[in-house]
């Protein structure tokens, strides 16, 4: 029997959102009017594009399980659509409930965001033992849901595809993970430059190291806050990582090219120091170098002597006779 203190995880997948976002990331943006039902799987070119943009939902569920036992898992979509039904076996094998949503409007909207939010709210009150809520989506529609889950004392994890995630949604979570950064996910194939119209290419406004610079600033801020709290220079690596995620839920050392948080910290020797001599690895801000106290003393200058004007003998004699 599981211990009462074990963490319990609920996973909610806005299926259309994650699949279309991945397709757009790999193959270029599609029009807002285009829906999953518009893709023709019998067309070889379309089938190839969909294969290149396949979503590994097993990697998503495996990552969710790293927070605790997955007690609830649901995926929302119109499963009568061929593109969606192609994933049904993969999801059923992982015991995911497939929630059928038929289009409610002529535009094809199925109201997945509303149904998902209602189910989350219902589950949190029916199952008070749920400790973590994983929302697999990226729309700003889920900002209020993430905030409400945190108000109810749950730890909120967001998972989305780069380029299709609302920054406000990512920041409203306790922790946010890019789909590409999940263990086991294969990086998308690089698209050729000519596939993107020149007029729509984003302008380069940041340097390649800007993301790492921003992460370094958050690390320094986290250390400053921790040191101000307990007046201890050396802080636990794990506690500093938690504080960083409170400041910036989008922080991911793997997205910056590092295998671990320790590797990320080691790349900033000018800012922080690591103490590897203890079982619980410690970190602190690098201490400023004291300026040299011994200054070269300049040779003392002798005071200038005011020159006296010499009196001529004739002038002196005339002064005495007067």
* Secondary structural class: alpha/beta
Beta fraction: 5-15%
> Globular, elongated, flat, extended or rod-shaped: what is the shape?
globular
Q: According to CATH, what is the topology of the largest domain?
A: Rossmann fold
Task: Specify the biggest β-sheet.
Answer: 6 strands, parallel
Any overview of this molecule?
The protein is of the alpha/beta class. It has two domains: 8-187, 5'-nuclease (Rossmann fold); 210-285, LOTUS domain-like (Nucleotidyltransferase, domain 5, 2-Layer Sandwich), CATH 3.30.420. Helix content is 37%, strand content 14%. It is built from twelve helices and nine strands. The chain has a six-stranded parallel sheet, with helices on both faces. Strands 7-9-8 form a three-stranded antiparallel sheet. The protein is globular. It starts with 7 loop residues before the first strand and ends with a helix. The model is unreliable at 193-208, 293-297 and 310-322 (pLDDT under 50).
